[in-house]
């Protein structure tokens, strides 16, 4: 199916329904045409999990498995994340998990779809959906997985290596009404690209970051 430029709006802000719950947001996001990424992806991959979660995880974007399943973190990175959560004694069922960008960006290489990093324009275009999720869930702690997720909310100059293991706060952003503690850490897909001892150390560091985030929770 072809799409005219008139069918693509400048970002998702005008598409986010007011006074909607998470289910209504997900239905609206499924029709999002806020940036061109929807044209090639199978579907929008919205967040899922407990609407009362005290901890919210935000990754970069759905991958190939997530795009086909319509669920976040169900591919190889999700499997590693689940292992890290288990090691940190955190129940994923009590979390809310989402991505900064809701459509899979990729390039085709033969029969494979290879992940491409979303542009800053695409991240900002999709950010109203993330703001809406944050405002509804209102977590105590926000864990940003990887540089794209971290920079989407904390600014493009943020460096993970300088801020891991510290409690951060969100800057004042139009459309945001919550002020959770913020923890930045590596994205599980980056850990999967490592080898041997480097991969083991990166996994252990992720577990440490998740434990640190869990300790910041104020809800019982």
Specify the structural class: alpha/beta
CATH homologous superfamily grouping: Uracil-DNA glycosylase-like domain
Low-confidence stretches: 1-9
What sort of overall outline do the alpha carbons produce when their principal axes are compared?
Answer: globular
The total count of strands amounts to 8
Q: What string gives the helices and strands in order?
A: HEEHHEEEHEHHEEHH
Strand content: 5-15%
Helix fraction bin: 25-40%
CA-CA gap between termini: 49 Å
Oligomeric state of this protein: single chain
**Overall pLDDT:** 91
Give the CATH architecture. 3-Layer(aba) Sandwich
What does this protein look like?
The protein is built from 8 helices and 8 strands; from the N terminus they run αββααβββαβααββαα. It has 220 residues and is of the alpha/beta class. The chain has a single domain, classed as Uracil-DNA Glycosylase, subunit E, CATH 3.40.470. It has a 6-stranded mixed β-sheet, sandwiched between helices. Strands 4-5 form a two-stranded antiparallel ribbon. A hairpin with a 2-residue loop joins β4 (106-109) and β5 (112-115). The longest helix has 20 residues, at 196-215. Residues 1-9 have low confidence and may be disordered.
């Amino acid at each position: 199916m072809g799409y005219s430029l008139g069918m693509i709006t400048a970002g998702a802000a005008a598409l986010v329904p007011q006074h909607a719950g998470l289910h209504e947001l997900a239905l609206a996001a499924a029709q999002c045409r806020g940036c061109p990424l929807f044209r090639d992806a199978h579907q929008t991959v919205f967040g899922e999990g407990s609407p009362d979660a005290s901890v919210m995880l935000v990754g970069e974007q759905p991958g190939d498995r997530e795009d086909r399943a319509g669920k976040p973190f169900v591919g190889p990175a999700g499997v590693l994340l689940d292992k890290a959560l288990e090691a940190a004694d955190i129940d994923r069922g009590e979390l809310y998990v989402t991505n900064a960008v809701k459509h899979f960006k990729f390039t085709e290489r033969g029969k494979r779809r290879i992940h491409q990093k979303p542009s800053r324009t695409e991240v900002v275009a999709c950010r109203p959906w993330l703001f809406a999720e944050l405002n509804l869930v209102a977590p105590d702690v926000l864990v940003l997985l990887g540089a794209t997720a971290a920079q989407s909310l904390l600014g493009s100059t943020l460096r993970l290596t300088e801020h891991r293991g510290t409690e951060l706060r969100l800057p004042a952003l139009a459309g945001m009404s919550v002020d959770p503690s913020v923890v930045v850490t590596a994205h599980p897909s980056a850990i999967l690209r490592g080898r041997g001892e480097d991969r083991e150390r990166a996994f252990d560091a992720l577990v440490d970051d998740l434990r640190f985030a869990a300790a910041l929770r104020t809800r019982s």
